[in-house]
Give the backbone structure.
Amino acid sequence: MKIESVYITTTRPRGEADPGECALIHYIVAGGEVRVTDPDGHLLRYADGEPVKRALGPDDNPRQIAARLGRSYHNETYGDRERGFWRDLPRGSVPV
């Protein structure tokens, strides 16, 4: 199996001084499905244990599917790290 890769935008540019950020997503296509992997080819899993994979349809583009799956995984794994402790809390979630 050949490990392929695609870049996804994780933070959009905000002008000339801020070029934004991207992440490299590794994936393989095998058995009619796209599987998002680490650089060594090991299947990644969401926090609930589900593998990051999806069956391919007849007209699906594996690269595009891998980018969508990779974005979903990246958002779940790293989504709120930037603001960390100082992030806004949802209304009504903390008693006053």
